[in-house]
Structures
1.
Amino acid sequence: MITRPADTLLSVDSLAVRFGGNEDAFLAVEDVSFDLRAGETLSLLGESGSGKSVTAQAIMALLPRNAAITSGRIVFAGEDLVSLPRSRTRDLCGTRMGMVFQDPLTALNPVFTVGDQIAELFRVRQGLDRRAAWLAAAEVVDAVGIPDARRRLDAYPHQFSGGMRQRLVIAMAIALKPRLLIADEPTTALDVTVQAQIMELIRDLQRETGMSLLLITHDLGVVADVTDRVAVMYAGRIVETGPVRDVYDNPAHPYTRGLMSSIPSLEESPGLLAAIPGMPPNPKERPSGCPFHPRCAFARPVCSVERPALRAMGDRRKAACHFAEEVVRLDPVS
Amino acid sequence: MTRYLGYRILSSLVVILGAATIIFVAIRAVPGDPALVVLGPSATPEQVAALRTEYGLDGSLLGQYMHFLARMATFDFGSSFRLGMPATQAISQAFTATLSLALAALCIALMIGFPLGILCALRPNGWSDRIISSLSMTGQALPSFWVGIMLVMIFSRMLRILPSGGAETPEAILMPAVTLALPLLSIIVRLVRSGLLEVLGEGYVQTARAKGLREPRVVGRHALRNMLIPVVTVVGLELGGLLGGAVIVETVFAWPGLGRLLIDSIAARDYSVVQACVVVLVLGFVSINLIVDLLYGYLDPRVRVGS
């Protein structure tokens, strides 16, 4: 058992999530472990299908009906959520952990006013009466930067823009002052200009409340801006983790290195974008050995046979590559 | 909103006028002279002519039509050749009987169909879903005359606890209502099941769960309200159908409703009652449609007009 800092809020340990029935079952997430301390921000970075959203759903007990946690522990504030009944985890949702979803256009219920939906939290979860809940809702909506909050509570979701709707979703997630905010691709569905505002808002809220943030994204820029640490996921596993600056400047895993060099640079001539060759593997038929080896420029015979463990590289970094020490010493990516 | 309502009422009037015109022409296109039907084959030509004059059937077709429209505006359809009373009086009783039968059937279908549909959607492909879904398929496939006769056999002949027909006692409505409800109930079960399954995959359901709401509240408030819209459409259309389409059930159970009155009146070439029946049925259908459209606005703020 690894000792953890006393202020560890969330600790995911060897999590595995299986999808599907007997014949076509596959592991969407496998052996995923990470810690998140109070007030800290961790990014789960990866392509679609890498298992990052499934990890978030597992924490919030929001996994779809055909998915199940098959092993591992999710310890939140001292309680193992995996062994808790779903209804008990549901109690923690909203009050202790909040979640922001990818698509603000579908995350709000179209048939209720936004005030109704936000006040519902205060009424159902905190037992406030109608009037007090409404006032509390106005306060939260005001806090997420929606002008004229009190009047706008009577409006329906379709009367707001995409960015405003995401503010409302955030308002709902933070209304009861949770200690953990999980943001699953919070800016992906938004215009670029709005993306920055939303991330700014999340950061401000985090600064005010001291909550921890688990940010799930495929956007390398967003990660660099707001995150302390990053965990890169590939094919259901964490392949590299460490402080953002270290991982970005000197990736220790060839996949991370590929991601970094795919960022177009303004200084260099605008030629071809560097892309990682090939496609992420189908989760039902992942390659043997290191799942990244068919696409890896550094692959050697051992890579197709033996799966590299996630091992420590210095005291704050980990990487799952047989040749991590070589990769990390390569010239920094531009 | 007022403008929309005005427009809808106006277009409803056009529909009623069209239906009235069609039935006016159609019933006269059917061979058979009402006077002959009433008087029988032994009537003298003088008697026939006299009766035709009495019923206003001797004028030109256009004249009769204008007369019909003018009286219809005051809800007067003339008197029944067959029953010897004003047509409005004849149908008002029948309409009440049909409406109570249709509403009873609707209540049964909704009260049973909704919970069953929800039960199916909560555990899709579970055993309760399989049983209920196949039963609802069967329920829709069974012809109502057969169901009706079976019910009569069981509850009237064998158990002797319910009257086989008529509307004399309050419990007489039970069997015709159940028979009428069965196909509608099956539709509602499958509609609620598929609608709820679809809605449960929506983002706002996840949001509701992430808010820590209990599953009954997530389903009962956030999901259900969103799947009501397609259900309301079908229920509205079906209720319109129940008003006019209860002929078979009304015949099996000797229920004194509009459908039976309409069939008997057509057979007797009772022009005034036929016309009155059709106009009232169309009026009912159009009103239900209007109510359904107004309900949309209530259920889904995105289609609210003029806001």
Note: Residues 87-303 of chain B form a domain with the MetI-like fold fold (CATH 1.10.3720.10).
2.
Amino acid sequence: MSRARSLKDKLFVFAVAAGFLLAVAPLFHLAVVVFERGIPALVESGLGFFTDGPPSPLSTEVGGIAPAISGSLILLALSLPIVVLIALFASLLTLEFPGNPVSKAVDVAARSFASVPTIVVSMAVYSLVVVPAGRFSALAGAVALVMVSLPYAYTSFSTALRSIPSTYREAAYFIAMKRWTALIRVVIPMAKKQMASGVLMTMARIVGETAAIMFVVGRFRAGIQVLPDQPVDAIPLLIFDYALAPYPVFHKVAWGAALVLLLSYAAVFVATKMLVREVKL
Amino acid sequence: MPSAARHDKLLFFSLVPSAVTLLGMLAAVIVVVLNGSWRSIADFGLDLFSKSVWIPGAERYGLLGPLIGSITSSLIAVAVSLLLSLSFSIFASDILRGRARDLASSLVELMGGMPTVIYALWAAQYLAPALRDFLMAPLHGYLGFIPLFSEEPVTGYSVFTAGVAMGVATVPYVSFLMTEAYSILPSTYREACLGIGASRLETAKILLSLCRPALLASLLLGLARAMGETTIAAMTVGNSMKVTACIIASGYTVPALVASQFGDASLYVYSESALYAASLVILSAALALSFVGLSLLSRWRSRILV
């Protein structure tokens, strides 16, 4: 290589490496910052961070985020089974009947749903559920969460199911299995682990979603509330509201909650990775 | 025992309800937005989109500021994520090998699933001040005579900040799409480049030119995503209805406007409807962009994978 050419090549590699570092740097800085600001809040209120209600604006004690944690868990419990079921059946439909107009419509709809801004979903659910019901509720939040996480669950299930070579299904048909039996006995068991990791990532999405539940769950922060038809709070929503509030103690709680959210997301992510690694072996 | 054809039909019809639910939910969202926005568009007409005011008390609404802010900030976001994602994809697929490459793809996946509210919190408290001190203030100081940088950045919250923050948050998504496109190129092209003794730069140039439609599609999909981004925009854009050519001044984006105003909107006559009209614009833009992006992508894929 001529000198100019090799210099150019080196510069290119350098520029690309710099861009790469710049692309992943935010992740590391963000993690460091969340720990740095979140740990003091957690240390200051100890276990109370998970059992107490949030502080009043001028209080000196940090308090806790118990209403948000319980709310997030209720929202997850209400929405995850519905998302998984609808996504599973829809992906089975598009897998088994790919040429059918209904399947084609489902495929397009699921992909378009992914690009609907989540805040628009929140507005729509407000008009469709909250206004007729006359109150904010965990159920309305679950409806919104189902809508925003469906495309992800559908895509990951479809990918998992399609990754099973068709020879296995043909073998199942050959030994006189019906289509449904072949799905239940052969295809789904083979794609099980990948589908489980899809469920986990959907779960992470549901727990981390802010905009979709903004106008529908009611931000109930006065205590722990477990009824599905009553208003609840959620961790991301609390972070959003408290970060925008002008009180320093609220900022502290927001960073503590961000640490809790980050750690639970990281735990789910690691679990996903471990599942998929087993598939490769 | 039912015949095979009947069995198939039964299976089909047992799966249809979930399909109908999915279709129904998308249709419901679109109908609600259309229905909600109709009133304000009918009564305010063009004024709704050509003025920039938000005074619910006097029932005066104009969405120009947030619409411009949305467009500008998401274009900035796409520019940022183009630079970073392209370098990421080239570095991860051409230069990294084995374990390191797996690690890089895990990292980008980790970033992609991260709750956006954490990005928002980080952007509002760290990225905004850093951009103000190291980029916006010098730009204003030296190039303040250009309208783009004419206002002094006081808080650091601006359309530019929101754009950069959303760009950082869309990097994982765009990187994922670009890396996928880059890696499904048949290996014969890569081998051909090796065969003619092309340097890494020349190889990258040739391979990138082959996946140009896919790169464009990734950018369109990234644009669609940035346009709908709410939490990051609401916490970094500065929330001001003023229309200005200056990108380092605070502004608004449509989702940020909705996030801050929809809660009280039911107290006024047209407030809710005006917000629906604003989100109708964003919704149609996002749907159109992702439709074009996805069809570009699938057409490219069927052409390149012969």
Note: The mean pLDDT of chain A is 90.
